[in-house]
Amino acid sequence: MPLSMEKVLAGQRALVTGGNSGIGAATARALAKAGARVAINYLFNEADAHALVNEIQADGGEAMAIKADVSQEDQVRAMFDRMLKTWGTIDILVANAGIQRDAPFHEMTLDQWEKVLSVNLTGQFLCAQAAVREFMRRGVVPEVSCSAGKIISMSSVHDVIPWAGHVNYAASKGAALMFMKSLAQEVAHLKIRVNGISPGAIRTPINRTAWETPEAEAELLKLIPYERIGEPMDIGHAVVWLVSDASDYVIGTTLYVDGGMTLYPGFREGG
Ligand code: BGC
């Protein structure tokens, strides 16, 4: 897919949490292509994070990998310290790290509930807070961007579509939606832009069972009016636009990038 916003982020420094796989990796690639320096946060699969750094560098970009569990305050602090020491500041946070721990509700353990909430929601809180503090300290640098900083809260269509068997995940994403909006309202006057992206079914490891066999894929496509599964770069492109000055007046909005999944596809014939 062509990226028509070449180098639109030149001179900016971005952090992508969960940047070593799936949507996060595509986002890191897209940000680097658009000219940003990219810090790729990871917790597991260190080799993937380093491979992505090498790929971006081979392509003429600048990147580094930083290990941290986004749900742990001390690790988030250390991650930001390292990034700020290396590159001076941060202009873009993509709070992307997210997990699923699926279970029927009557069998869901407290650990499954807490793990999902702590990564998907507390992780966004800790990273966004560290980013906001740095944006406030630095303020607007007009040569770099017309805003003091941008935050993307990576959510899901399940911030509005209920999801049986995934109550912990849907609850975390529904909460992330109001987290994003409330924070956007609070910091907009500081020229900090906070927005959300809600992907639909994107072909990544998190939902492999939903697309890896032809039967599963056919079932999944019934939920997608556009009749294709999303690719990680569909999200990468959306992120680039939403953190660029091209979207400067977009505040507290969620962009659904879902092939129409949120359009109640069952009603195309029903109702
Ligand atoms: C989930 C995927 C799922 C998609 C659409 C995402 O947020 O992580 O597992 O396929 O929503 O249902």
Bound molecules: beta-D-glucopyranose
Question: What is the CATH C level class, in words?
Answer: Alpha Beta
What distance separates the N and C termini?
A: 37 Å
Q: Count the E strands.
A: 7
Question: What would your notes on this structure say?
Answer:
By secondary structure, this protein is α/β, with parallel strands linked by helices. The protein has a single domain (3-259), classed as Rossmann fold, CATH 3.40.50.720. The chain is 41% helix and 14% strand. Strands 3-2-1-4-5-6-7 form a seven-stranded parallel β-sheet, sandwiched between helices. Helix 2 links the parallel strand 2 and strand 3 (63-67). The termini are far apart. The mean pLDDT is 97. Bound molecules: beta-D-glucopyranose. Beta-D-glucopyranose is lined by residues 100, 156-158, 200-201, 206-207, 210.
Topology:
Elements lengths: L12 E4 L5 H12 L3 E6 L3 H13 L4 E5 L5 H15 L4 E4 L14 H29 L10 E6 L12 H21 L4 E8 L14 H8 L10 H12 L10 E4 L14
Parallel strand pairs: 1-2, 1-4, 2-3, 4-5, 5-6, 6-7
Helix pairs in contact: 1-7, 3-4, 4-5
Beta-D-glucopyranose binds next to loops.
Features:
271 residues, Rossmann fold, binds beta-D-glucopyranose, single chain, globular
